[in-house]
Amino acid sequence: MAVCVAVIGKDNSPLYIGGIGNDSSTENELSRQWLVHTALDALEERLTTTSGNNTNTSTNATRTDLRDLYLGLLYSTDTHKIYGYVTNTKIKLVLVTSSTSPSGSNIRDAEVRTALRRLHALYADAICNPFHLPGDQIVSQKFDKQVKSLMMNNV
Q1: CA-based nearest residue to 87, from 137, 54, 127
Q2: Cα(78)–Cα(115) distance, rounded to whole angstroms?
Q3: Distance of CA 154 to the CA centre of its chain
Q4: 36, 63, 77, 139: which is deepest, by most CB within 10 A?
Q5: Is 139 helix (H, G, I), strand (E, B) or coil?
Q6: Per-residue pLDDT at 32 exceeds 60
Q7: Which whole number is the average pLDDT over 42-69?
Q8: How far, in Å, are 31, 42, 61, 79, 147 from residue 18 at the CA level?
Q9: Given phi > 0 = left and psi -120 to 50 = alpha, else beta, which region is 137?
Q10: How far is CA 75 from CA 80, 83, 121, in A?
Q11: Does the structure show a pLDDT above 80 at 102?
Q12: In the 8-state DSSP scheme, what is residue 18?
């Protein structure tokens, strides 16, 4: 089950961090932010190795790598698994799932990939709002409700 979803800007500033659950305490919020920010190191490492490998390959392989925006499992802890996705505009999407629940251990890679693609579509819809300024945090209640619905239903 998904615990937290984050949208991180080009400059590694959080644009949206949302979670589900009954515990909305400050400690839980800090824990979510810590998980997301530690994922940024793994994301950046994965991005630099991908771009480094692209310089030595043919143009066809480079085009294939650029189409695959899903970075897969970034790292896992005893209680969580963290997955990454990067858009063409270098916006980073992070999905944190629980690995302690019985359903958390059965999450397939295809399900996570689908959930992150849907999150990307929701993000694109949210920033297409003419009143949204690029680089600002996403404060849309509609976006928050759709993300929480995605987290509850799909992952």
Answers
A1: 127
A2: 22
A3: 14
A4: 36
A5: coil
A6: yes
A7: 62
A8: 12, 20, 35, 18, 8
A9: beta
A10: 9, 7, 24
A11: no
A12: E
DSSP assignment, residue 105? G
The CB-side HSE value for 77 (13 A sphere, CA atoms) comes to: 12
* Structure tokens that stand for 7 in this block: 């949208």
The side-by-side arrangement of strands in the sheet containing 2-8 is 14-19, 2-8, 92-98, 80-86, 70-76
122-146 pLDDT tens trace: 999 999 989 888 889 999 999 999 9
Residue 61 Cα distances to 49, 66, 148, angstroms: 15, 9, 36
Identify the bridge partners of residue 96 per DSSP, sorted by sequence position: 4, 82
How would you class 137 by CB atoms within 10 Å of its CB: exposed for 0-12, middle for 13-18, buried for 19 or more?
A: middle
Tokens 């994965």 found at: 46
Residue 116 has pLDDT above 90, yes or no: yes
Q: Tell me, what amino acid is at 121?
A: A
Under DSSP, the state recorded for 69 is -
**pTM, two decimal places:** 0.81
Q: Which of 155, 55, 59 is nearest to 106 (CA)?
A: 155
